[in-house]
Amino acid sequence: NRWIYETQCNVLGWMLAYLNPEKMSGKLIQRAVDTFRNLQPGSKSRRVALQEKVLNGTLRK
After folding, report:
1. Which of 27, 34, 37, 45 has its CA at 20 to 30 Å from residue 1's CA atom?
2. Cβ-defined contacts of 6-14 (< 8 Å, 24+)
3. Which residues form the DUF8032 domain (predicted)?
């Protein structure tokens, strides 16, 4: 479910921001969260899932 995925990303983002308050601004925290989530099985972003389908030749039109 996309809502659960987004909620988990937000929780991770806030945890990272709490640990790194000087880096809260900018996209560094979001990038770290995205990278972490994309490494977890079954939690890939839509962009990464699409890229994998294109590379595997399994993208349906």
Report:
1. 27
2. 8/37, 8/43, 9/33, 9/34, 9/37, 12/36, 12/37
3. 1-38
In a domain, 61, yes or no: no
The DSSP call for residue 23 is G
Task: List Cβ neighbours of 55 (8 Å cut-off, separation of 6 or more).
Answer: none
- 28: which 2 tokens? 């560094």
Cα-Cα end-to-end distance for the chain: 22
Cα(28)–Cα(9) distance, integer angstroms: 14
Amino acid identity of residue 38, one-letter, is N
User: Global pTM?
Assistant: 0.43
Q: What is the pLDDT of residues 47-58, one digit of tens each?
A: 888 888 899 989
Q: Is residue 46 situated within a structural domain?
A: yes
Secondary structure percentages of the chain, helix, strand, coil, to 5? 70, 0, 30
